[in-house]
Amino acid sequence: MTHASENRMLIGKRIKEQREAKGLYQDVLAEMIDTKRTNVANYESGTTAPQPYMLVKIAKALNTTVDYLVGATDNPSVRNDTPSETIELSNSDLQLSLDGQMLTPQEIKLITTMIRTTRS
Q1: Per-residue pLDDT tens for 24-36?
Q2: Disulfide check for 9: which of 29, 46, 61, 100 has CB 3.0–4.6 Å away?
Q3: How far apart, in Å, are the Cα atoms of 113 and each of 87, 97, 98, 108, 120?
Q4: Buried b (16+ CB within 10 A) or exposed e, 44-71
């Protein structure tokens, strides 16, 4: 088996695994990525490999990454590289706009008051 055919088989296997894990049929995935069911079947069987733009569509539809589909990682989860951090903002820190106009400090105070009221 050639390296190219091994890659096609791996990609196809991972597409099928992720599709089935999501409970999707081939025709549903095909509709989600704007292609024919036969194309999805060919990808999954390793007959053909999806073009790069199609890999991106498939990864998004299956909520996974292109890296996972092509075997660059064994983790199918979508990573969020943005560090999670909580920042406390005081009214003086906020600069907001609505409909292209900056909100006044009074409008910002009204918004924060409304949020605090609905939370309590």
Answers
A1: 999 999 999 999 9
A2: 46
A3: 18, 17, 17, 9, 11
A4: bebeebbeeebbebbbebbebbbebbbe
Which pTM was predicted?
A: 0.65
Q: How far apart are CA 19 and CA 2, in angstroms?
A: 26
Does an H or E element contain 97, and which? strand 97-98
Residue that is written with structure tokens 């069911």 in the block:
37
68, containing H or E segment = helix 66-70
Helices (H) and strands (E) in the chain, counts: 6, 2
| Gap between the Cα atoms of 66 and 54, Å rounded | 10
Distance CA 106, CA 110 (A): 6
Backbone phi and psi for residue 94, each to the nearest 5 degrees, phi listed first:
-80, 135
